[in-house]
Amino acid sequence: MAEELLINVSAFETRVALLAEGHVQEIHLARPEGYSRTGNIYLGKVERVVPGMQAAFVDCGLDRPGFLHVRDIEGPRLMLGETEENAPPDIRELLREGQRLMVQVAKDPISGKGARLNTKLAIASRYLVLMPFNEHIGISQRMDEEVERERLRAIVARVREDEGASMGYIVRTAAEGVEAGAIAADMRVLARIWDNILAKRTDVGCPGLLYEELPIHIRTVRDMVGTNLDRIQIDHLPTYERVREFVSEFLPDFVDRVSYYEEPVGLLESRSVHEALDRCLDKKVGLRSGGHLVIEQTEAMITIDVNTGSYLGAHSLEETVFQTNLEAAETIPRQLRLRNLGGIVVIDFIDMEDEEHENQVIQVLQEACAADPAKIRLEGFSSLGLVQMSRKRTRESLTQQVCEPCGHCAGVGVVKTPQTTSIEIFRAVADDARVHCGPGAAGGEYLIRANEPVIDRLLDEDAAHLEALSQRVGCSIRIQVEPSYAAGQFDVVRVRPS
User: Fold this and answer.
1) Do 478 and 448 form a contact (C-beta atoms < 8 A)?
2) DSSP conformational letter for 86
């Protein structure tokens, strides 16, 4: 499947889009005030140890302290003789308030929460991931050929022994078929980076930044360049020159595929990336047959509902449902990747009676998930007919990056109807009148201010109720349109006679 990488750079935002066969697969955004910190390594100070949570809050110099759980502490656990099979020790055995330690951001701050931290430091290059605190050599699970896996493991072990190092490595998928010299060069680069981090640790203050992950345009080139990539287009000359320099040094086979975009039509506009980004903000996703998905992002999980919509099928209800579910299974993984949705995902497929149909839907879903580089776990249909899966989340979703809660609905997603607002107005007038318009009270009137739909209802459907209320409270009621008022917003003012 032919792929293209488009990099658009401006003074206020960098956007990277990965296209496959002309269709947008991934969109990455970086803004000066909100770039991803995932992968950064900091010298942090333990601000608070919380035994009840078996966790600590660590000041890294970010807006709020990061969260470090006991299971994400590697170096000290190894020194205490702990292994992954053992239960982790008490957090108080490992950390104390005021202690300094190196931590890495595993997940960006999301929805008001601090960054998720760990001490299992990992530094990535094109072909490898260095793990300085252990000696394990791992191979990407995406490599199926056992002979190739053993070849790569032997190369890493041999180079590590020759260099006299005792650190661990994970061989990335991009290393498949790569010669030993390139692997060895990557190992030496990572060793230099780690030496620089150790040297910098004695110079920076605490909290302080020890290692910063590559900028988004370099990082995406490093991580996304593969055998299917035909072209990298960049519309910003300094960025183009830097990417070309990086590719020349680390990915020489791809130098000729990097090009500078100079056309008058914007780079992303020419490939309809803006339209794809706008569609990512819509919770409704159409399917080719006429069915649709409804994707909802909540604090705890992602829910996806599958509907037949206007698709009527050609044979039977079961066949209609089956075909809609198959289309949904193909589409859902791409939408999760495109929107960068992670965490727990619950899918409500349309109920099917044939168990074989359910098995085929799960198979299609698994095959579609295989194209996603993020770690995914998938379960079959539950007793309630739901499919549960998880997708690793390291940064905010696209919606969280480009949107904020609605000032009118406060993030609820719905607003009160004019009828509901009218009823609340009647109740407010009646409650106030019981206190201020009793026997012997001076006259006056009530002024009601609300937006136009509410005022229209008071003058039309609820006019009789308004008149009856006026007679009951013994005060005239005047109404006034306030164009700036949001749905559900109103004022009831008692105007006393002068």
Assistant:
1) yes
2) S
The first and second tokens of residue 200, run together, are 């910098």
pLDDT of 32 > 80? The answer is: no
CB 107 within 8 A of CB 393: yes
Q: How many residues does the chain have?
A: 498
The rounded distance, in Å, linking the Cα atoms of 327 and 179 is: 41
Please, is 67 exposed, middle or buried when counting C-beta atoms within 10 Å of its C-beta (0-12, 13-18, 19+)?
Answer: buried
47, 215 Cβ separation under 8 angstroms:
no
CATH superfamily to which 42-211 belongs: Nucleic acid-binding proteins (2.40.50.140)
Domain with CATH 3.40.630 in the chain: 281-402
Torsion of CA 16, 19, 23, 26, to 10 degrees: -50
CA distance 340 to 216: 15
Do the strands 301-307 and 55-59 form a parallel or antiparallel pair, or are they unpaired? unpaired
Furthest-apart CA pair in the chain: how many Å? 101
CB 217 within 8 A of CB 225: no
DSSP 8-class letter at 255? G
Is the distance from CB of 30 to CB of 41 less than 8 angstroms?
Answer: no
Domain with CATH 3.40.1260.20 in the chain: 418-495
Quick one: tokens of 457?
């209802």
- The conformation of residue 70, written as its DSSP 8-state character, comes to G
Angle made by CA atoms 217, 185, 123, in degrees to the nearest 5: 50
Least confident among 47-56, 219-228, 345-354:
219-228
Q: Tally the C-alpha atoms within 13 A of residue 272's C-alpha that lie toward its C-beta.
A: 7
pLDDT class of 186 with cuts at 50, 70, 90:
confident
Structure tokens at 324: 């809609």
331 by Cβ neighbours in 10 Å (0-12 / 13-18 / 19+) ranks as: buried
Token pair recorded at residue 152: 């790569």
* Beta strands at 116-118 and 55-59: parallel, antiparallel or unpaired: unpaired
The answer to whether 46 and 58 have CB atoms below 8 angstroms apart is yes
- Per-residue tokens: 223: 């991580």
| CATH code reported for the domain at 418-495 | 3.40.1260.20
pLDDT of 253-295, one tens digit each? 889 999 999 999 999 999 889 888 888 889 999 998 888 999 9
Q: Where are the beta strands (DSSP E) in 163-283?
A: 168-171, 208-211, 229-234, 258-260
As a 3-state breakdown, the chain gives helix, strand, coil percent values, each rounded to 5, of 35, 25, 40
Is 137:106 a contact under the CB 8 Å cutoff?
A: no
Residue-wise DSSP of 288-349? TTS-EEEEEE-SSEEEEEEE-TT---SS-HHHHHHHHHHHHHHHHHHHHHHHT--EEEEEEP
Residue percentage of the chain with pLDDT more than 90: 47
